[in-house]
């Protein structure tokens, strides 16, 4: 497996403005509230597939690439690039000889650091690490009082603030909801501005058009400094594949921009099993691997060593209604198997999230979300997009569910720690002190450890029935709505150099003025 170059690991990162700029920036953006570090697993990965099964999938994926091929549509330059490395091109169909894609993938790093404007918030993606990021892409939002409605930029900004203040989230994400009140060709500027100014966690760049990816790079050069961006990864992006086996010019154009600038890309099939891939787990995993290898290989043709993430978004389908289903055993099998394939390929892995098909943050939403989150942890996921806030099959970003999910992500942190076995954990002194028939509430060991012994929700109600009833018999959605109000009411923006802010505002204003509004 490949890692970052020795030089990159040994040399201190350079900030574009030089001198003591990094130290001054760290002081300006010092962490102002408790935020958990990236999860580092101390538990083994669950591996459901045998080596024989993995060998079969890998061999079949190579056959798919060589005999069936993949389509790179409306992208003549991509076709020429594939020809230059030995692929066969027939029209827009690219057939990749066995072994070529895997050979090209070998230059992709197995881990990389995504830098935040606050160095305390940097994340390492890959290895035993798990980075959690919020929901991505819903056109609608929902809350307890306002119901379901089209998302606005004000909603978007609220979600960025909630993500910033959520202890267990490591990442600000990207399109946490789609602000439909801003023109399509300009909303990426407002979304990036929100991530850059309302939070100091790492964030994602725009992929909806190659020029918007370039805007993302240029805004990061203002925020971080041009030299720093040239030397470091400061953005992750989501590059979806049009399954089955099709790579469109828009997504590939964005990938070309990010890869050429050494910025990270999640190469992710978007699969509804039975509609966009076979109904079987083995068949779906074969297609997933073929698509991901082709996408990663293409990124490495653009720039060997460009950071990438093996992505898998897979859901099954209800064969009666045609609606996607979530939290199912089949999706869990694919999430798990794709993790094994990603580790064999030697690249970081993205999958799982707070997936559910429910219309409300109810029991269905909780069960399906829990199934998906826990399988993601056990399957070795390194970057979990949609970790909180997802509702209605991804059509809705829900405020109450956002804080409920973000709270429950704390359980993943604690499960990943595994079981301590040191002298304090063995608790022999406590067992001796209490002896037969006693209780542990007042013993020395309990007094020394009670603050950290058990994870505790910041949202759920643990009070006796009588107290709960006196306080209004509030359900979890009501408690979450109160939590949303509390967080937004106490939000304070992380400090940002006024000169940098002014330059970002000027850039956005100039870009918006340079073309007419478009809502298409």
UniProtKB/TrEMBL annotation:
Transmembrane segments: none annotated. The keyword Transcription does not apply. Keywords: Methyltransferase, Transferase. One of its GO terms (biological process) is methanogenesis. The lineage of its organism: Bacteria, Pseudomonadati, Pseudomonadota, Alphaproteobacteria, Rhodobacterales. Its EC number is 2.1.1.-. This is Methyltransferase. Belongs to the trimethylamine methyltransferase family. It comes from the Bacteria. Signal peptide: none annotated. It is an enzyme of class 2 (transferase).
């Amino acid at each position: 497996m490949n890692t970052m170059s020795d030089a990159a690991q040994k040399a201190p990162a350079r900030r574009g403005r030089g001198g003591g700029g990094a130290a001054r920036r760290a002081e300006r953006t010092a962490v102002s509230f408790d935020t958990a570090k990236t999860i580092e697993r101390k538990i083994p990965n669950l591996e459901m597939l045998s080596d024989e099964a993995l060998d079969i999938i890998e061999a079949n994926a190579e056959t798919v690439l060589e005999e069936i091929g993949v389509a790179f549509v409306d992208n003549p330059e991509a076709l020429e690039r594939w020809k230059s490395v030995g692929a066969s091109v027939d029209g827009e169909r690219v057939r990749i000889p066995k072994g070529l894609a895997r050979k090209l993938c070998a230059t992709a790093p197995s881990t990389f650091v995504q830098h935040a404007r606050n160095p305390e918030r940097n994340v390492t993606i890959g290895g035993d690490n798990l980075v959690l990021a919020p929901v991505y892409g819903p056109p609608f939002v929902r809350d307890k009082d306002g119901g379901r409605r089209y998302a606005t930029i004000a909603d978007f900004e609220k979600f960025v603030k909630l993500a910033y203040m959520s202890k267990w989230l490591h990442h600000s994400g990207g399109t946490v909801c789609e602000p439909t009140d801003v023109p399509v060709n300009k909303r990426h500027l407002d979304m990036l501005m929100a991530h850059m100014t309302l939070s100091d966690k790492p964030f994602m760049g725009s992929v909806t058009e190659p020029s918007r990816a370039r805007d993302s790079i240029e805004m990061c050069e203002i925020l971080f400094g041009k030299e720093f961006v040239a030397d470091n990864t400061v953005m992750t992006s989501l590059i979806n594949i049009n399954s089955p086996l099709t790579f469109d010019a828009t997504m590939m154009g964005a990938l070309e921009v990010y890869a050429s600038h050494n910025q990270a890309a999640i190469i992710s099939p978007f699969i509804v099993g039975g509609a966009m891939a076979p109904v079987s787990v083995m068949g779906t995993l074969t297609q997933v691997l073929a698509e991901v290898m082709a996408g990663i290989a293409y990124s490495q043709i653009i720039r060997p060593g460009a950071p990438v993430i093996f992505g898998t978004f897979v859901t099954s389908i209800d064969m009666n209604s045609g609606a996607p289903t979530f939290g199912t055993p089949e999706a869990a099998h694919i999430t798990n198997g794709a993790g094994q394939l990603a580790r064999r390929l030697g690249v970081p892995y993205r999958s799982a999230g707070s997936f559910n098909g429910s219309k409300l943050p109810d029991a269905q939403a909780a069960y399906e979300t829990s199934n998906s989150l826990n399988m993601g942890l056990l399957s070795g996921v390194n970057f979990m997009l949609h970790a909180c806030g997802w509702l209605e099959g991804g059509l809705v970003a829900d405020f109450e569910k956002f804080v409920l999910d973000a709270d429950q992500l704390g359980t993943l942190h604690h499960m990943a720690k595994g079981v301590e076995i040191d002298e304090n954990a063995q608790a022999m002194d406590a067992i001796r002190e209490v002896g037969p028939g006693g209780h542990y509430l007042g013993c020395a060991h309990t007094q020394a450890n009670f603050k950290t012994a058990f994870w505790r929700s910041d949202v759920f109600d643990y009070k006796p029935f009588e107290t709960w009833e006196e306080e209004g018999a509030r359900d979890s959605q009501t408690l979450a709505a109160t939590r949303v109000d509390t967080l937004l009411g106490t939000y304070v923006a992380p400090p940002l150099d006024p000169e940098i802010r002014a330059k970002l505002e000027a850039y956005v204003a100039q870009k918006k003025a340079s073309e007419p509004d478009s809502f298409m």
